[in-house]
Amino acid sequence: MPAAVAEVLSAVLGWGNFTAWFLAMYPQVLTNYRRKSVVGLHLDWLAYNVVGHTAYLAYNIAMLCSSTVRDEYYSRHPGSPPPVHVNDIAFSINATALTYLGAWQAMTYERGGQQVSRLCKSLLTFVCAAMAVLAVVCGAGHMKWLDMLMFMGAVKLMASGMKWVPQAVLNYQRKSTIGWDIRTNMCGLVGGSCAILQMTVDAIAADDASNFLGNYAKLGLATLTMSFDVLFLYQHFVLYTDKTVQKKAEYQALMSIDGTDSDDEEEDDMSLTAEP
Fold it and tell me: 81 with 186, same domain?
């Protein structure tokens, strides 16, 4: 593939990825604002996002802007530049800001007694403490900053994997996706596809697979996100559509009425039998 073509194609896919993921952050915030409620949105999803996006923002900025980190990367991957683009930083800034806005909404709007789970609190406390310790170790010169960033990339990957599970379980328990904006997943699916295609183009142009596999944070993030996007779309459009939920509610209501009538009849029979 000619270098000029690869450069243009990579840029187009990169900004396509940025645009889709950029837009993916807005529907849920707007839905929360419109409803003045976060009921139906699992608060673990917000908590994992706060830590994950903050770590990923630091990862992207350092990988692109720090000469120390870039030199360490070049020494490990000669001839291959760090696989982070300006659009990655733009995405991270947008995502982090909207995540903090969503957290503020959760503290302000009606949440129906929902709380962040103990598992989530414990895990994120441990992760934040580990990042603080590693930063001190790197500052003392006992560890490469690149290794610290790899850990932060892993934190983002962990947060991205963990955050979807509570929301998927909540949808299953409620048999509904009300409160969750499915447009988040539509945009995420497009963004993930663009991200993987961009890394593929970069790797082919550089004739170096490390350009694809080296940015495991972005690769893992895109793959995980797309997997859960498909699951949520299936829940929303197949399992828990409005029609399906309505039919189940009507069926349960009908069964409840039948059961009540049956009980009433049994009580009448017993009262007649008991009469002298």
Answer: yes
